[in-house]
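Record format v2
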Amino acid sequence: MKHFSTILLVLVAISASAQQTITGTITDKKGTPVINANIYFEGSYEGTISDAEGHFELTTDLDGEQLFTVSFIGYEPYNRLIHLSGKDTLLYVVLKPEVSELNEVVITAGVFSASDEKKSATLSSYDISSTASALGDIYGAYATMPGSQKVGEEGMLFVRGGESYETKTYMDGMVVQSPYFSSMPNIPTRGRFSPLLFSETLFSTGGYSAEYGHGLSSIVDLTSNGLETEDKASVAVMTVGANASWVKRWEKSSLAVTGLYANSALQNRLFKQNVDWTKDPVLGDGMMMFRQQIGENGLLKSFCSFNSMTMQMNYDNFEAGTMDDLKMANLNLYANSSYSDQLAEKWLIRTGVAFSRDSEKINYAGVPVTTLNNGTSLKLTFTHLTSKKLKTRFGGDINRGLYSQSVTTDSTTRMEMSDIQPSLFLETEWLISKKLALRTGIRAEHSSLLQEPGFLPRLSAAYKTGTYSQVSFAWGKYRQKPENEYLQFAPALSHERADHYIFNFQYRKQRRIFRVEGYFKQYDRLVKYTSPFSPLASDYNNDGYGRAQGFDLFWRDSESLQGSDYWISYSFLNTSRDYQDYPESAVPSFASAHNLSVVYKRFFTRLNTLFGITYSFASGRPYNDMNTPGFMDGQTKPYHDISLNLTYLTTLFNRDCIIHLNITNLLGFNNVYGYQYATVPDENGEYPSQAIVPTTGTQAILMFMLSL
Amino acid sequence: MKTNLLILTIGLFSICAWGQEERYTTAMLSAIEMMEQETEPGDLIESANRFERIATAEKSRWMPYYYASYSLIVMSFDESDGGKDLVLDRAQKLLDRALELEPEESELHVLQAFLYPSRIMVDPMGRGMTYIDKMFASLERAKTLNPENPRIYFLEGVNKLNLPPSMGGGADVAQPILEEALTRFEAFANEDPLWPHWGEEATHAELDKLQ
């Protein structure tokens, strides 16, 4: 009898674990409550539904790690692991519309977009942060997308035979002046913004809408998160630094604050560096993001970030046979506030203001060069939903830029210029029939510095060829102001120009996408100069030209393999250009004819581990071998990289904990990006050269994160 | 002692298994009862949600999926055109899962035939022909699997009734089929308390209308 009561006691103890209540609100992206949604823990019968305000309350006896699920017809189910420990939890759940079949034709030529279900969804912030070779960098992840070239020594996006400066980044509708951290020669940089800040990222490789200016080749458009969904706080320690973040949600507003300190000292000791660092790169970064819902549909977003980066090294001046001191300090402040609302039933408004200040101090062998870039942007757009079939958008922006550069040798030389660029655009999207859609747009631009008004027409059309497939076409004229480093000496230069022609076929069924895209791009009025850094205006002209043509293939399947997601992208590029100080038209050194990326991810439920691997390949890049008579006739060996990441989710002290390991260049391929040549031959009449190589071989980064 | 322990262990196991079965049956019966008491089709979402929750916990049983799908199909009759397709997409997904588990179950093919007419209502001109063919094909399949299933004859009768005589429909064709349905309903017996049993009352109602 005594035994029996013991057993009973044990059983009672097991079943009488702490009760816990989860309360919260379920809305769609616009903040409208989702009524009658199914709310439950997977595997248990009990659950509840949301009421007319989207509120719910779910009490459970379960404990430990449980999968909390919210589902509703027409929306993607929401899943998250909750650690039940008897502590009541408050959740704000935002359901995303289900990406169903391609019911309507949509304009897709040139565009890769995430979560904007009207376009072709490809990369979410989760996709970006779980891509092994990207190392949590937005641009690194887009480098695995078709149309981009691998240019390892820069770390920036190079799109379809275009230079890195031809890709412009927009954040909440406004162009970002310095989206990358400053860097030094042949040290790859990365984007300033964390992918986790954005709910939608769109990468267009050409043929983009009239709303976008400034970029000759490509656009990365980042839409920052709306209201945060819950209170949270976390700390992380990495082999490269530490990070802390704190998020608070109120009824109609939210605030997120993040601080990051990164220092490569440990990393640079652990992994052999091809760079002689005298001061390891150090980064301090602070970010604040505030959101306020105003009225029923209005949303105010304020973002502010500040970061400081320094590094110093002995630069191998192989020509002089010396190691020269080179150091860099970069300070950047960026603030962006935007407001969007529904004015009337058919009118939407979006407006914003952004401010940036970037100071870069580079000191080479005792010669300091200080570059300041200040920018202010104002933007206002209206959308009129004329009918289900017709939508009109129009608006304008003003960008004011202040640039100055001073170089101190025996005396200080200081260059300064300012530019005001107003622009207007008008665009209509017309669904002519269930199978045919047309988008026409025009953009008018001016620059107070270049004094050159421009009208840039854009056109795209799409035709539905089957339930799951469509073809589309895009054409447009684009222009971009020459880089400041040329304009400061030759302000009379005119805009560089490009025409895009794009044909696209897309097949998409549920979570499988296949795309093939052919393109032709014609460049004109590219900047040429007789010698680099010449201070004489007469040494610069707009006589350059070029072209790029090729095709991209893309396949992504998030469905067929259980728990797995993978994509394969291949790009073929045929390009040549005559620009800068080229003596003739040639394939530029950043262009490789074949680029391939294979990205694979799988979540192992039983191990609670996300595994990711990427393979990247690029065929050889041209370089100008000074010891042969031809121009740009050298070719590097092909580029290979295999990167890997493992993310293990667990709990520690009753709190969620993540351990993340990222290994780049797992097999230690000895990649060569190109060769630098001396300007004068040695005594044997040979020009000495030096290979441009990655800063390190195989490298691993370990991160440990704990949610508070 | 060893034997005692063994008996105790086996006993505990069977109690656990019995408890699990009992828990499932109780949950299903209460959900079915709730579904049958619902008067507004729009409220059936709550029943559908309950069945879906049971389905996620009982992934190897076809009935929770069946009832979740059934609730949504009935609910779809009252939805607007756009909403109808969304609800039916969901219903179809749930039914597909049940069919993966039990591809040879006559009732599941009947349910498939029950879903199609609601699809037709969204766009009768565009969808009529294809879905009518699909519906009769599903009923045929159900009949080969279990000719005694009365719901086959009920759906066949009702749908023939709504078809014009030129397309092989009409009251004269429908009446004997509905009468056969009635006979089959009276003869149909399944020991499982959770087994579908809808259709009998509706058959009576249709036949009354014909008289």
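Residues 450 and 597 of chain A are 40 Å apart (CA to CA).
The helical segments of chain A are 2-15, 125-129, 138-142, 265-270, 484-487.
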